[in-house]
Amino acid sequence: MMFDHNYLLQLIADSVEENPELEYKAAGALQRDDKKVMEITKDVSSLANSNGGVLIYGIAENQNNKRFPEKIDPVDCKSISKEWLEQVINGKIRPRIHGLKIHVVAIPGNPDQVVYILEIPKGETAHQADDKKYYRRHNFMVEPLYDHEIRDIMGRQNSPKIMVDFEIVKIEDYIQVVGGKKFFHYFLNVYAQNVGRLYAKYINVTLTVPKRCVNLQKYEGQNEALTQLQLDNKVRDLVEPNAERYYQGPIAKPKQYGPARHEPLLPGMRTAIGQIPIHEYSTDSGNTISWTLYADNAEPTAGEVEFCDVKR
Questions:
Q1: Which parts of the sequence belong to the Schlafen AlbA-2 domain (predicted)?
Q2: What is the pTM (predicted TM-score) of this model?
């Protein structure tokens, strides 16, 4: 997502309401007094303790209809700099929130007037505000966490964090040439990436795609419009042919594979878990890939993307 001036204008024009993962704050929320600093740490840590999200400093809410943006209310970056905001967040929230980003959007015509957009990831553990309490976002409010909720959040460290992504590859068919025209095969490559700190032993992805996009009959499902595919991190090792089997002449010994096993995905690693033949027209808009990912004892995650938005 491009966090720029047009993004802010679009939020206002579309009257995008606040939600558990989006919050607006006017410029006055950023001040150097202790009370405001405390509120900053509560707002930021509460998002990290929930599902993460976007916190915008520099948009005023509609006074008659709370939670809706009314106008840009820029921050004076000479008095409230990005560096100061980073120091508050990194120095007063414990433990530090890894992966947090602060985007600075300058207001056209006045470089001293900016909006700060904080991109806050879901925390890998519970984060404590400057008042030594833990908070979360709930029903548009910042609320203290109960003891069992803190324990649940801290338990995130006991589960792997896996992401799924896709790539479409185009491979030339060197055999099939008709009338001087070359033909190509298209494949949807599916990858699993470990972005956490724990390794994952078992990975399973339930993929749902339009049946018309898939280029093999064996992938046809029961639903007339959609088909589901099950992908995982199982591998089979190539082994030597059985020594007791003997073939004469030009007959080759067939490849033999060992039993299926799960290949663990270590932190930072990315691995292919499937390659699906697809039709060329799959990249037309309107064809959506949906998935649900399961990994060890982690909570299932889900998402979707259109074929036309997949990396090529």
A1: 18-139
A2: 0.61
